[in-house]
Amino acid sequence: MSLEFTQHTVPTVPIEAETLSVSSLDGLTAAAAAKLTVVHGNRAAEVGDFFDVAGAPDGEVHISGDLSRVKHVGADMSSGRLVVHGPAGMHLGTRMTGGEIVVEGDASDWVGSEMAGGRIIIRGNAGHLVGSAMRGERVGMRGGEILVFGSAGNEVGAGMRRGLVAVGGDIGDFTGVNMLAGTLVVLGRMGARAGAGMRRGTIVAMHPAELLPTFTYAATYRPVFLRLYLAHLRALGLPISDAHMAGPYRRWCGDAIELNRGEVLLLDTAAGPST
Amino acid sequence: MGSLLRIVNGRVYDPANGIDGEVRDVCIRDGRIVADVPPEARRIDARGMVVMPGGIDIHCHIAGTKVNLARKVQPEDHRHDVHLRTRFTRSGTGGSVPSTFATGYRYAALGYTTAMEAAVTPLGARSTLEELNDTPVLDKGFFVLMGNNVLLFKLLQEGRMEEFRHVLAWWLSVTRAYAPKLVNPGGDEAWKGHRNANITELDARIEPFDLTPRQVIAAFIEAANALGLPHPVHIHCNNLGHSGNFETTLETMRIAEGRRAHITHIQFHSYGSVAGKSRDNPTSRARDIAEFVNTHPNISADVGAVMFGRSTSMTADAPLAYMLRRFGGHKWVNADTEMESGCGIVPFTYQDRIYTNALQWAIGLELFLRSEDPWRMVFSTDHPNGGTFMTYPALIRLLMDKEYRKEQMAHVNQDALDHSGLRECMDREYSLYEIAIITRAGPARLLGLANKGHLGVGADADVTVYEDAADKEAMFAAPRYLVKDGNLVIEDHEFRVDHVGRLLHVEPEFDSSIAQVIEPFFEDYYSIRFANYPVHERYLHQHELVPMARP
């Protein structure tokens, strides 16, 4: 039986709850988990002040309630499975290195910032800066996968160096800004300035997008690797169509103010079905 | 006012009074060192401990507009190094450029009680004073940037030397500064005028003026000595960091011709040159520089040693920062303060495997080890440029412990060591007495602070008590007691009270009619009205006016 947290009090100011991660709950009884410290505003509080805890640890944790003011859930997680039933707060799964987090609802900003491994699945929408570097840092996400079934905000994948971010809906501005490497897939529409400052890496989008003047058109082709990626995402439940699989894609190189080794692949919707 | 204190049984190192490890009492009353205190005075047993005056940093960057730019540009440093509040002290952030509160407490926690902010634009004086007032425990002052000042350049090129001196005195007084600072004199003008241009020769023309760096340096040395400033001119030479710059440094020191001048972070100015693949590589010319300083008693220097790890290059030397940005490889700031100065910030990491970094490390040590007069070659890392002040204990250990030094040398780029003279001076080990000179008595004397850096009767009661240990790094990293102005600020390694130190400043005399020369220039060129420019007294907070060296 898994460890179950059910919210009985919605915090009036945000709580910081790094302790609500499978790794730090490992081996704890429900009573001990309720005693763990969280920071409520500028005061120390206990998990039990906000949640009823039941069950026993078996590597799986369920948290139910409105967690939009509960930050850092699943931070530094290295194994196990954590499911949030309801909206999740900022910094979900930040610096996570392994395991899986599923949010059955929306998530706030900074999902998986600087994560290095594991998988985060958001069934609803995500906020800004998914998989990004923290302010001032150069390197964002270093590995792992983040799937957002809904839409996402600005600066998704900022500074990312490895890993995969996929967004099923629309996405805001500055997608993949200062990206060092890694792959970003957007099924909906992209906002302005995608790939600004990117050095390497791939941004894939399924709708036409206006790119910066520092990006140059290279070719229209059907990249083989992309089919592998898209098949993987389809298996995870994202609505990848046959047209997405077939392509072709228009390849743009950039950002020329940096290394110019990045690419933006835009599905060529004008092209006919593949032959 | 502080309580009555008697520190007993400690080994006292007070070089200014010739006391070398003698076990004797130090008595404190009303914030001063006194000859004796009544028996009811609180006794601190310092058996097995070392008693020194509070540490004095002659050159660091801890307040002002460029320090704030450096803080802003590195939020990641703050996230990783949170300075928690205690019952007595306030919270802050650390990293290579700590917040004001953390700066004061962290200096104090190393046994320091005085620090000089080394580069403030006159226009930045107000905010600097507010920040310094928020920098606890320490007494502090600042050096005001004058070496790229357009009005002073204009007066100089017209040969109006008398007015030049009055304007300099006016500027020091109205900004509440401690000393004039020259940074790469003439270099900012070139950088502002042409992209990435600098000035490389002391006799080159400072466009668009009919003036050379040599004339600027000579004029400042002349004027600062004539005014009788307690610290007559603090010089960051031209060509900082460039291969072969030792000749510029020697030439700059020769300009003084027997008059007092202080060359700062001289390690960065002690480079020879050897042909490399794409450009000339630096080598060590520390021997030539040390020999010149050794034989010229009018010249003093602080080393500006490099220590490996995170640092932040921050300087008024705008062309230098523009050059360094390629080595930082990440983010950088260049800025310009209208008629007064330039500025640049580059977050930087010194790595022991990199030739140039290891060479700089070796040259810093070499300068210390070749110095024959510790009173004139004093301690600094140019915090946070060569390394942060948190590296001071490790640097002290490198100087005091040759076995440790040897171990560290084994880890660094050996090619760099081959191009330094460090292996030639491996026998020297600094004594506690000499450490007390380069970190306390020497800086106090060079700054002209008669009440600091010693434990004689009448001195400020700024006292550090360290627990003697074989590991000098551990010893100097955590004093057992720190007394500031007679208050026991740190006891048993912990803060027991908060304390606000004083601003140290000077007010050299000037002819008040000099305003007629300055005002028209202000109204033509400045973004601020002349009447609003002088810094009002209320910005001084707790302060001490330091008298001129001569009437």
Number of helices of chain B: 18
| End-to-end C-alpha gap of chain A | 52 Å
Multimeric status of the protein: heterodimer
Poorly predicted runs of 5 or more residues of chain A = none
CATH architecture title of chain B: Alpha-Beta Barrel
Number of domains of chain B: 1
Task: Specify the biggest β-sheet of chain A.
Answer: 13 strands, mixed
Greatest interface (CB-CB under 8 A), with counts per chain:
A-B, 5 and 7 residues
Q: Considering DSSP H and I runs of 4 or more, what fraction of the residues of chain A is helical?
A: under 10%
Helix and strand element order of chain A: EEHHEEEEEEEEEEEEEHHEE
Terminal residue distance of chain B: 31 Å
- Given helix and strand content, the structural type of chain B is alpha/beta
**Which segments of chain B are poorly predicted (pLDDT under 50) over 5 or more consecutive residues?**
none
- The CATH class of chain B, by name, is Alpha Beta
* Gyration radius of chain A, rounded: 20 Å
Residue-averaged pLDDT of chain B: 94
Number of helical segments with 4 or more residues of chain A: 4
SSE topology sketch:
The complex is a heterodimer of chains A (275) and B (551).
Chain A (H helix, E strand, L loop, with lengths): L2 E5 L7 E2 L5 H4 L4 H5 L2 E4 L2 E4 L4 E5 L4 E5 L5 E2 L9 E5 L14 E4 L15 E4 L22 E4 L15 E4 L15 E4 L15 E4 L10 E6 L2 H12 L6 H5 L2 E6 L7 E6 L8
Parallel strand pairs in A: 1-6, 2-7, 6-8, 8-9, 9-10, 10-11, 11-12, 12-13, 13-14, 14-17
Antiparallel strand pairs in A: 1-5, 2-3, 3-4, 15-16, 16-17
Chain B lengths: L4 E4 L2 E4 L4 E5 L2 E4 L2 E3 L7 E4 L3 E5 L1 E6 L4 H9 L1 H6 L1 E2 L8 E2 L6 H9 L3 E9 L4 H9 L5 E7 L4 H8 L3 H15 L3 E5 L3 H7 L19 H15 L6 E3 L9 H10 L5 E3 L7 E5 L4 E5 L1 H10 L3 E4 L6 E7 L2 H11 L4 E5 L3 E10 L4 H16 L6 E2 L13 H9 L1 H10 L2 H5 L13 H16 L15 E5 L4 H6 L3 E4 L2 E5 L2 E2 L7 E3 L9 H11 L17 E3 L6
Parallel strand pairs in B: 1-6, 2-7, 8-11, 11-12, 12-13, 13-14, 14-15, 15-18, 18-22, 27-28
Antiparallel strand pairs in B: 1-4, 2-3, 4-5, 7-23, 9-10, 16-17, 19-21, 20-21, 23-24, 24-25, 25-26
